[in-house]
Design goal:
The chain is mainly alpha-helical. The protein has 15 helices and no strands.
């Protein structure tokens, strides 16, 4: 029975990663591009959190967990800023100017940046090898971004969208770290629900206020619903349940599939071509993440495992 649970946990982990991987092309569908805009990034950000917040409120009412204690509200609030607002907003703006495949390479650094932020925020020491891997991964992303911007004729050689993506990665990382601080006490699945419910007083009125008046393509609404239901909510249920059943250390390795799944999903959803250069840089960045995770000491599975949205 234990082997079956571990196998099911692994597949649930893969399912969660797949949900998160499709976030990039679906967000681009929802926001559109600069030349053909659809839903505004602010509406997508607040709306997806509001949709997940309503679902979370229903879940909490049905399961009736105890309220978080006073000292737990601050970490949850930081998770709101990082995961419910900062990451999706910066990502939405970035995806108006860069492709989903491009964004997949930059956001592949998320597990490594999360570990680095954990070492900083939680005052944990990491070996020199870890920091060298972090620098190597960052250098790969910079080289990739400069090459891509050069191909597009940018004078400076660095796209504005890349700075937004880097900001999104740091926002998500800090949100994961603060959320991980209360995961053991509250339960992993309930953390994301409390985060979304806490944001409702801002996200729900904001969504109604920013509701688009102009016609919006059906594909944009599909992308919006996806990031609200799956990226912001249901994906975490599959991911956290997989970690619990299959073991955090083992199942968390499935997040290395995420950049490649994002690139593959962008082909049918957005018509983006599969670029061997993009795949190559994605593979190189993932290699630095693998090496960095092995060299990170001490390990923080709850934090590292969460780094996947």
């Amino acid at each position: 029975m234990k082997i079956k649970d571990e196998t099911l946990g692994m597949w649930l982990g893969v399912l969660g990663v797949a949900f998160f991987a499709v976030t990039l092309p679906m967000t681009r569908l929802a926001t559109g591009t600069q030349d053909a805009p659809q839903l505004s990034p602010w509406f997508v950000t607040l709306g997806r959190a509001a949709l997940a917040g309503v679902l979370s409120a229903i879940f909490l009412l049905v399961t009736r967990p105890p309220l978080p204690q006073r000292h737990q509200w601050t970490p949850l609030g930081m998770a709101v800023l990082g995961n419910a607002i900062g990451y999706p907003l910066l990502l939405a703006y970035a995806l108006r100017v860069v492709s989903a495949s491009h964004a997949a390479v930059v956001t592949a650094l998320l597990p490594l940046v999360t570990a680095a932020c954990a070492a900083w925020v939680l005052h944990q020491r990491a070996r020199l090898g870890f920091w060298l891997c972090a620098l190597a991964g960052s250098a790969l992303v910079i080289v990739f971004s400069v090459l891509r911007a050069g191909d597009q004729g940018a004078a400076f050689g660095f796209a504005w969208g890349d700075l937004l993506l880097v900001g999104a990665v740091f926002a998500a990382s800090l949100g994961y770290i603060y959320g991980a601080q209360v995961t053991t006490a509250l339960g992993a699945e309930r953390v994301i629900c409390w985060v979304c419910v806490m944001a409702l007083p801002v996200t729900l009125p904001g969504t109604l206020w920013l509701w688009p008046e102009q016609p919006v393509a059906v594909s944009a609404w599909i992308g919006f619903v996806y990031v609200g239901v799956f990226s912001m909510w249901m994906g975490f249920f599959a991911w956290y349940r997989g970690l619990a059943m299959g073991g955090a250390l083992r199942v968390s390795q499935t997040q290395l599939l995420q950049p490649f799944l994002s690139i593959l999903a962008a082909v049918p959803l957005l018509g983006e071509p599969i670029d061997i250069v993009t795949l190559g840089f994605a593979g190189a960045v993932v290699a630095t993440v693998v090496a960095g995770k092995k060299l990170s000491q001490p390990r923080t599975p709850a934090v590292l495992a969460a780094a996947s949205r």
